[in-house]
């Protein structure tokens, strides 16, 4: 059976106090921040295609792929 992958943002690592750089590289516009240029980013799992670009662009290493 094929495993599915879900991108998650670790709120213990992300400082949530600056514009998330991964928003700009997400081709699916799946990442949003609650406030203008700040706040813990949220990944819309319905839009995410699990490409993994956001993982590479997060300077804090806060985005992880979780196998389910
Ligand atoms: S894995 Fe790709 S599509 Fe999903 S949130 Fe990250 S950059 Fe966007």
Output the strand order for the largest sheet.
Answer: 1-4
- Terminal CA distance: 11 Å
Q: Characterize the main sheet.
A: 2 strands, antiparallel
- Domain count, please report it: 1
Ligands and ions found: iron/sulfur cluster
Give the ordered list of helices and strands: EHEEHE
Question: How large is the radius of gyration?
Answer: 11 Å
How would you characterize the overall build of this protein?
The protein has a single domain (5-67), classed as Alpha-Beta Plaits (2-Layer Sandwich). The chain has 2 helices and 4 strands, in the order βαββαβ. The protein has helices spanning 22-25, 53-57; strands spanning 5-9, 31-35, 38-43, 63-67. A two-stranded antiparallel ribbon has the order 1-4. It has a two-stranded antiparallel sheet with strand order 2-3. The protein starts with a strand and ends with a strand. Iron/sulfur cluster (SF4) binds next to α2.
Quick structural gist:
This protein has 68 residues and is an alpha+beta fold. It has helices at residues 22-25, 53-57, and strands at 5-9, 31-35, 38-43, 63-67.
Spell out the key features of this protein.
68 residues; alpha+beta; two-stranded antiparallel sheet; binds iron/sulfur cluster
List the helices and strands and how they pair.
Elements: E1 5-9, H1 22-25, E2 31-35, E3 38-43, H2 53-57, E4 63-67
Antiparallel strand pairs: 1-4, 2-3
The structure holds iron/sulfur cluster.
Residues 7, 25-26, 28, 30-31, 43, 48-54 line the site of iron/sulfur cluster (SF4).
